[in-house]
Fold this protein.
Amino acid sequence: MKRYLVILFAFCSLVQAEVIDGKKVFETYCWGCHHQSAEAFGPPFTEIASKRSAQEIQAYVLEPEAMYKAFGYKRTVMSQLKLRDDELEAISKYILSYKGK
């Protein structure tokens, strides 16, 4: 029984290690142009979170050139990022965590 608990604990630890952290995705891909609450090259997350849903954020990250007109922007300078689905979900949740801050 003890052996099974050890195996279960080890498996759970491995699964936990695979959880993608939105802050890490931000630091890897977004930090050069965006900051959480201050204006940088791109708008701060507080502004984005107040205007956009998770689906809109994800669509813009995946296809900025296709989405900028739909959002009413005159131009886009954001690069298209090649994020995995879990990274995309993590960054949109992280951005939305700044809603109302």
